[in-house]
Amino acid sequence: MQDESRFRQWLKEKIKRSRWVTRTTDNVETVARRLGVQASVLVEAQRELTEERQAQGRQPAALGNRSKRSAKRQIIEVEMPEAVFGDWQEYCRQRDMVPSVLLRSLVHTLLSGPENPMWVGRTWVYRGKRLVLDGYKEQMKLKGWPWSVKSQITHGAMRALTIRADLLGCTPTALMRGSVIDLLEGRTKRLNVTPGVSSMWDDENRYWTGREPGA
């Protein structure tokens, strides 16, 4: 198992030094087949290289064209119970993060790998309690839901989120609800901080949608 882990890391280092990480316009699955590696190895290499470049103050690496001009934007919103929203704000305060950046980072983190949230139901199950949006209709008639977070993401990310949700038999909202719960309950192992929309893919095929390649 240790030998396998070392070999996987060796592969990633080789990929990070190759032209495929930064110059190709093909999707992840196509490049992985061309290199003879698993798509997950390619995605991990891309993520590690991005983190290394960001730590050095350089531009993130990109598989394919992901320019600021071509990154079309779409709004995503998560409406939370008041108790969850309070913990969300505290998380942002402790880590000095803008709420919209944290939400976009959650979307990017979720779509960058195959792991799904532990809970993708229609309601909030948070810290052992089932929570609802009390007085939702009344609040919406007055001035809108006060405990919500919005962010901009690419159209490609939204399409990937929708495809993945459809395959799981849930909604994109349920997927993001589960991602928020995992984050606040400490199950998110690594957060891929995504400061701007241009740091995201605008092609859903570059994300983990759960769909078979070519489907």
Physical arrangement of strands within the biggest beta sheet: 1-4
Helix tally equals 9
Distance between the termini: 33 Å
Question: Any idea what the shape is?
Answer: elongated
Q: Strand content of the residues, in percent?
A: 5-15%
Q: Bin the helical content.
A: 40-55%
Low-confidence stretches: 19-26, 58-70
Rg from alpha-carbon coordinates: 18 Å
Mean pLDDT: 82
> Count the strands?
4
Strand count, sense and closure of the main sheet?
2 strands, antiparallel
Structural class: mainly alpha
Secondary-structure element pattern, one letter each: HHHHEHHEEHEHH
Q: How does this model look, in words?
A:
The protein has nine helices and four strands. The chain has helices at 2-16, 20-23, 28-35, 39-55, 82-95, 99-111, 136-142, 155-168, 172-184; strands at 73-79, 124-126, 129-131, 148-154. A two-stranded antiparallel sheet has the order 1-4. The protein is elongated, with a radius of gyration of 18 Å.
